[in-house]
Amino acid sequence: MDNSAAISEILSYILLSLGCWGVFRKCGIPVVWAFVPIAREYYLGLCADRERDGRNMAFLSISMNIISIAALLMQNNTELEMLLGITALVLIIGKIVYCARVYLGLTKVFNRRKRWVFLFLFFEDIVLILWGWHPAFKVDENLEHLQKTKAAEGLNQDITGDSDALTININERKVKDFIRTKTLLRDIHMVIPKGHMVLLLGGSGAGKTTFVNAVTGYEKADAKIELGNNDVYRDYDKMMYDIGFVPQQDLMRVSDTVSATLADAAGMRLPTNVHILERRKRVDEALEEFGLSAVRTSLAEKLSGGQRKRLSIAMEFISDPTLFFLDEPDSGLDGIVARGLFEKLRAIADQNKIVIVITHTPDRVIDLFDDVIVLAKDSERTGRLAYYGPVSEAYGFFGKDSMEDILRSINQKEEGGEGRAEEFVEKYAEMIREKVG
To answer: Does residue 401 surpass a pLDDT of 80?
Structure first.
């Protein structure tokens, strides 16, 4: 690279950095990222409320740099140079597409016409400097992703339960997301007695799956989870047999018979020191418990939707767990079949067990539940506890007549909700402080 080219590269870097600095400052993003190539493209996507597009821009930039280095190293290989050239062209086209999407998002943030996108594509650094530093270009303060409201004040203290309950104290659950750290859950504390059937309610992104994974120990959080006198994290090798999880999708070989499916489940779900005769006994008990004895020799693929779902539950029930989680067990089932399935879950809870269920149609079976856990996204898009307690009291707490209306009240406004998550997180925390304080 000659001196003129090097000077051009340096000047381009400085101008682009200055432009991003100004835009980031107006959007409330740390300006230090304006000087970090590739990372600043991701944060431009965040500023434009196009995080995924920004991430793709950054990924394509990395790929283009790798291709450039490879081309320098392979200058004497004509065929490889041609292949790298074609690859680079595809990457450039892809980056242009994602750049256009991000800049289209910025036109909305700055309340400008979409035609600015073309100027961005040809004069990126100059336009960014203009938008970032000229006082006439202001961000739309009504856009939710740019509002810097203070997150709701939660309980922020552990609670204790008795030896016959599930005690959950989750301080936070964080993950590394590309180049930044995201908090998925924070400040969730509750005690669930045995014998209770609990509804887990929350909108998209509220952290329901993360909550389940944290409580079961599948993905550990900064938390203390106790089932009775046992610590789920510390004693995971033992506790894993006392916790059952039934996913939304049935995980079974459809070419196996019902009894063979349960026999395989017994081999996986029971400790290795359990005698084979005891395993056979457990299989027979599960068949009887879930009304599958008559179809024990039938192939799983021949079962009805309700029978297959009962088989999925029986596969977890084989180890006789104290704690059951079920993710949308009524998915794809009609009302009558779904009702029968939930009545079966109610009967399991009545055996001094804890059953926690996620369902998108809770109101048709809400009379079978004891309690409801309501998770909501706060202003920082972190899953928070907006309510935990009896179903009958939840209606008064939220001032609503149905679970669907409760969910609508805590959902963000762009999701068609009322955007009152912060209000109920603080209201619930204050109610618990009064009870324990």
So the answer is: yes
Distance of CA 172 to the CA centre of its chain: 14
For 434, half-sphere exposure in the C-beta direction (CA atoms, 13 angstrom radius) is: 6
Do 58 and 85 fall within a single domain? yes
Name the nearest CA neighbour of 189 among 167, 207, 208, 214: 167
Cα distance between residue 424 and residue 349, in whole Å: 28
334 shares its domain with 389: yes
Of the candidate ranges 249-253, 341-345, 350-354, the one whose mean pLDDT is the lowest: 249-253
User: What's the pLDDT at 434?
Assistant: 83
- Whether 302 is covered by a domain: the verdict is no
Under 8 Å between Cβ of 299 and 219: no
Count, in order, helices (H) and strands (E) of the chain.
15, 10
- SS3 state at 169: strand
Q: Order across the sheet with 323-327: list the strands.
A: 230-231, 222-227, 165-177, 180-193, 383-390, 371-377, 197-202, 354-358, 323-327, 243-246
Q: Summarize pLDDT for 167-207 with one digit per residue, the tens.
A: 999 999 998 877 778 899 999 999 999 999 999 999 988 99
Closest CA to 189 of 381, 352, 324, 389: 389
Verify that 336 and 222 share a domain, yes or no: yes
Is the full-model pTM beyond 0.90? no
CATH code of the domain covering residue 340: 3.40.50.300
Output the DSSP codes for 232-270: TTTTHHHHGGGEEEE-SS--S-TTSBHHHHHHHHHHHHS
Give residue-wise pLDDT tens across range 17-37: 999 999 999 988 889 999 998
Tell me the pLDDT tens digit for each residue of 78-105.
777 788 888 888 988 998 999 999 999 9
List the one residue out of 31, 12, 24 whose CA is nearest residue 48. 24
Residue 77 lies in domain: 3-146
CA distance 363 to 339: 11
Is 301 contained in some domain? no
- Of 100, 140, 137, residue with least CA distance to 120: 100
Compute how many other C-beta atoms are within 10 angstroms of the C-beta atom of residue 20: 26
